[in-house]
Amino acid sequence: MNATERRIRISGVLIALGLLILFVSLIPNHALAFVGFAAVGVPLLLAGIIWYLISLLKHSSES
Amino acid sequence: MTGSISWVIIGVACALALVVGLRPQLTRTREGKILAFLALFIMPAMTLVMGFSEHMEHATSTKFCLSCHVMHDYGQSLLIDDPSYLPARHFQNNSIPRDRACYTCHTTYTMFGDVSAKKRGLRHLWVQYAGTIPRPQDVKLYDPYNNRECLHCHLGARNFESASPHNKTADILTNAKSGKLSCISAGCHEFIHDVASIKDQTIWKGATLP
Predict the structure, then answer these.
(1) Helices (H), chain B
(2) Domain tally for chain A?
(3) What confidence tens digit (pLDDT) does each residue in B94-131 have?
(4) Separation between Cα atoms, residue B198 and residue B195, nearest integer Å
(5) Distance of alpha carbon B73 from alpha carbon B192, whole angstroms
(6) Looking at CA atoms only, how far is residue B129 from chain A in angstroms?
(7) Which of A13, B38, B77, B163 is the most buried (most CB within 10 A)?
(8) How far apart are CA A5 and CA B59, in angstroms?
């Protein structure tokens, strides 16, 4: 596994975790669920997306 | 309850992200690269927007509003067994949807208003979970209650236009419609969420809060 694939693995796991939190946060109709989504789910999703875009940029600069 | 399409989209997005994350070797082919772009960019970005939209929809429900401890007495005020209390009368007679009772009359409150209202909404969440929660009777509206919230249902209705208290003098209706006279001013519909006296009130047992 090369460096790009390792970055993609991290990105995929972050996004899957973020989506899992989004999924769980939509079950209860409670203010705490929104807090969980906004404070944990959104940062994980954004981190995963940004990490994926970084991996694309680094891959193109490496090759 | 969240729409089933949303559940499916989130589930599919999660599965795709997991597949690409656990098998990054897939991206060695052209098809794999397209799949990765879909799974790690398009789908998460789409579900992020969708998730926020679903949460905003949840936030319009009575259950969501009453999930904060400070709102408990405001919820109880919808069940006061006295028709002179305006929110109770509206809630008990189904004049407003019971599952959207708060949002129907407070359309610009916290997350649903402008940027400053949204900032207040986030501060309310902070206070609820990390700050000092005020007493229910200390909770006040930031801005005077806008007659617009009443008029979007009552304007033009016969029982509003021709009600004798509204026509006691010629300018009452005109001033109410222009916002010069508040619907909830003293001598008009002044009994709103009187949470300070909620413990002394009789509670109507005919309905339960969502």
Answers:
(1) 4-22, 30-37, 43-58, 62-65, 72-76, 86-92, 101-105, 115-130, 148-154, 158-161, 171-178
(2) 1
(3) 999 999 999 999 988 766 677 888 888 888 888 988 88
(4) 5
(5) 12
(6) 8
(7) B77
(8) 39
Contact residues on chain B for A4, CB-CB shorter than 8 A: 24, 27
For tokens 């999930």, name the residue: B67
What type of residue is A28? P
Coil/strand/helix, residue B109: coil
State ipTM: 0.92
- Reading the block at residue A60, the tokens are 């193109």
Exposed / middle / buried, residue B114 (Cβ in 10 Å: 0-12, 13-18, 19+): exposed
Which chain B residues touch A49 with a CB distance below 8 Å? 40-41, 44-45
> Which residues is B49 bridged to in the sheet?
none
Residue B151: which of B199, B102, B184 has the closest Cα? Answer: B184
Summarize pLDDT for B26-35 with one digit per residue, the tens.
Answer: 999 999 999 9
Taking Cα atoms as reference points, which of A14, A11, A16 lies closest to residue A52?
Answer: A11
The range of the structural domain enclosing residue A41 comes to 3-62
Helix H or strand E encompassing A32: helix A31-36
Decide if B204 contacts B79 (C-beta within 8 A).
Answer: yes
Q: How many other CB atoms are there within 10 angstroms of residue B141's CB atom?
A: 10
- Residue A16 at interface with chain B, using a CB cutoff of 8 Å: yes
Q: Give the span between the Cα atoms of A10 and A4, in whole angstroms.
A: 10
